[in-house]
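At this stage, I wrote out one protein's amino acid sequence and its backbone structure tokens, and that material follows here:
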Amino acid sequence: MMDKKSLSNLPGLGFLKKDIYMLEEFLKRFTDSLEGVLHETVKSTLNAGGKRIRPLLFLICARNENYDIDYLMPAAASIEMIHTASLIHDDIIDKSVLRRGKKTVYYNYGKDTAKFVGDYLFTHTFSLLNGYNDPEILFEMSDAANLLVKGEFDQLKTKKDFNQGEAAYFEKIKEKTSSLFILSCALGGILSRSGKRDIENMKKFGEYVGISFQINDDLIDVDTDMDDASLKFGKTIGNDLRQGNITLPFIYGFNNPGYKNEVKPLLLKEYLSDDDLKKIFSGLLKTDAISEARKKFEYYLIKARETAGLIQGYQRRKGLHKICDLLEMGAKQAKWTTFLK
């Protein structure tokens, strides 16, 4: 994937470059106000980089005649904070070693510290949003928070469930991933005092682009060159499968009875070795699972582009289309795309 520096320099998003710099400074001042372990852990997560795609979506959706970056900054920061908190909690559940190419808070400091850091960031988002004195904003944030937690429970409930279908998968990713994309777009519309129809279309865009984002992430997790992919994407390839999370490529792959019977004994093991993963991945490539998942990725990306076209404001539409371009460019960096040429 592209880093945030590349993202801020994308043609068509240059109008946000200064605002993203201001966001980084805001987050740095917040981190510098903390002390001890809390300062160290927040610095290693919140200030560690990333694409800042969610606050970017927020700022794009807020872009109209009412645009005021100083007014919008606390909301932009709150979106990145709740996202970071969700990643820290994910790492605890998944026992992840790497996040964005660096050791996780969970790995470096243990479960309890990681939990408290995630909780602190999570609650601080509401402190920031309280300043707007707008119940609609707090409703959207509360709804997103509820969906995030429900998504974690649903994921735990379906671990190593080899019979789950598309419907269960899409329900989970709408909760775990799309919820924050929807929130980002909704807050941008609300704080720019946009019309109800525009806000609804922004939320639909967030849902569709969030689904595409997650499917692409699932495909990266089955990258055929595990060592190269770990370096490129800053994550441990195959981690979803090691945690028992059945992602979309495997849901499609298990539609092939021969493949399902072949890999099920491996997937039931307590620990999957790299050799196990390579066998599972190589078998997956003999099915049409990658191609089917790729089609879903493209389908939802098209839906996102179509929905962006319905939103008022040339700069908004152009910016949202550039976010779709970013996802498409990121997908082309993954090795699985070479099998579809």
